[in-house]
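Our collaborator T.R. sent over the components below with a one-line note: 'Predict the complex.' Nothing else. No constraints on interfaces, no templates requested, no preferences about which chain binds where. So this is a plain run: every listed entity goes in together, and whatever single assembly comes back becomes the starting point for the next discussion.
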Amino acid sequence: MAILSTPSTGIVKAFRMDNCVAVPMADIPLCHEDDFRRCVMQCHEDGARLVALFMPEPSELMAVLSADESGELAVVRAKIGNSFSSLTAELPSAQAFEREIQEAHGVRPEGHPWPKPLRRHADLEEPASPESAHSFFAVQGSGIHEVAVGPVHAGVIEPGHFRFQCAGETVLHLEIQLGYQHRGVEAALRNAAPGSRISVAESIAGDTSIGHGLAHTGAMEALAGVEPPLRAQALIGIALELERLSNHVGDLGALCNDVAFLPGAAWLGRIRGDFLNSLLDLSGNRLGRGFLCPGGIRFDPDDTCRKSILKKLNAADKDLQHVLDVVFRAPTVVSRFEQTGKLSRALADTLGLVGPAARACGCDRDVRRDHPSGIFRFAQIPVTVNDAGDVMARAFTRAVETRRSMRFLREQLELLPPGPIAVTMPALLPDHFVVSLTEGWRGEIVHMAMTDSRGALVFYKVVDPSFHNWLGLAMAMRGQLISDFPLCNKSFNLSYAGHDL
Amino acid sequence: MTNVLLERLRQGNRTSRFPRKAPDFPPSYRGRPLLFPSRCTSGCRGCEEVCPTRAVHAEPLRLDLGACLFCGRCEEACPAEAIVFSPDHRLSVSKREDLMLSAEKEFSLAGALDAKMKSLLGRSLKLRQVSAGGCNACEVEVAVLGIVVYDLGRFGIQYVASPRHADGILITGPVTKNMVHALRETYAAVPPPKLVIAVGACALSGGLFANTGETLAGVPDDIRVDLFIPGCPPHPFTLLDGYLRLLGKIDQKMDKRFRDAVSSSPASR
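Returned assembly:
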């Protein structure tokens, strides 16, 4: 309960919340900006991690922090004017959030070291002048050269711009400029009919349809004061782990491809399909779209479907173990993966990394254990932590996670509880606020929502794990050979659409 | 090295026999929706009300496949089975208006390119993919055609790194304002004559993001589309079927086999 104790330097306490439990907005104390800063920093010193920083209403700043060890969420909110004093210098994990606030609300984070637009709303047709807000950080000196890549990349991949400052083959600095995928997701979520919001949530990051869908339904159910029946909870957990398996296996295949170990790439690419096709069995869509709805799920698998998925999983598991055994023994793989793109635990903590990228640096955090909701309150999956922080650690973390998810899937599919699959959704509680966390395959997904006095949704905020992790990739590239960028990039495999919203 | 070869033997040949054999779909799969307006209860607008992209129009019953997410909510909401999702994976068309489904009009699948274009392409088709606000759902399904199961290369089709090497571009996403410039530049960089394939509800109509003010609600008019492939995202076999139709590689015998598979599928309701 460390984070809830009175901070030694002030009198303001953080308000305690739990994952997927709505609280009346009025219960969250509104403090002065100076106290806000003191309180956030105190929570951070006590070991809490910044989950989100945003403006729920004009002239109001709110921070959500997570004390992973005690499984608590802390919320601090303050009244602010046209600017506020930036936290970034002391709390670097706030950097992207503050840039987002400046861009979306015109509220200045005073003292931010790099207050550049995050999603580049400005007209792209205008060439960026060196003085403009869009200019890139540049390294000066003889022999220094710059490499610009994107937004259209070489592969079938989303757009983003990468600007490398190099000395010969060595990358001194990488700046990643995103925003090309900005579609207005949060506005679309607020404005959609209540029944259609889930479709928007499923499209935040297409490869994480279940993860974002679940973060959304979790928020809506909490605001309505209901929870899905046990059978639905189990099936939602199954869908979430199938999504994790398909992406982890796909990533391992793509990593093999990037070091030209083509047999591994071919086999793993094929095995990934078994998990996607299991989601197809469950939901009628290979990415699991249409499976979730607020209150539960839409399709109840019969016994034939359940058995068909189990059969697919058993076959895929066997193939996967054989292939991983070959992959992690191949000298060509090991020599390229090891010591490439290394990040220290300290840096990962400073940047606030989440998901497998953080766990591969030794950060012991996983929403499924730290803030469990749904089936994960009853069935635990051990958290995979590795401490090397290189491409090998990120690959190996995924490999171990696939094993553990597979065990969970077998257990759940063999003992699927009977009963209904959804509850009716009542109206949302008025003037309530909720934080909904889900451990997607990339890491912590956060959806936050607030209702007005009539119970209508007035605020909706999404934080994709990529929002934290893109800077991790940039830092992992420092001192690396530029030719290792594709490999490092794939070892993070971050979402552009999830970041850009 | 030996273990790699042994594993290669163990893994065997996993390439599907498509298009010579129709693909298998589980009963849950939602392919092309069929409309039966005669079953409609007058005044009921259930299907229209639940559609997340307003793709359905109740009276007269119409469905814009270009905006359809294939979520099945209209089918679920209909008390009279006037909309039924069939297991037919064939969805690609050559003209945007062919995606406006109605009971009176036969669904008209995409035709092959003209003889001149086909002879220019020879036995190869190189595509440059551009994601313009796509959420990475269409992108992953477009990319997955490269794996051994679909093995795009056996049809002479390949995704290439540069528009200069491409015969055309394949567009996904609702075309965000932030990407339209890069999309037009990429299109301009493809040497003519060039093909354009638009994939997914977003590229075809803006999908869920048509009215956010941040997108152009799909591929803009100055980029002429030759092949429209609907879905959210389309199944890989839907994509492959579309590419092969464009190249004239789906013959009547194959098409008949697909039709027979649809009518005998457990998913046919």
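Summary for T.R.: Residues 215-461 of chain A form a domain with the Cytochrome-c3 Hydrogenase; chain B fold (CATH 1.10.645.10).
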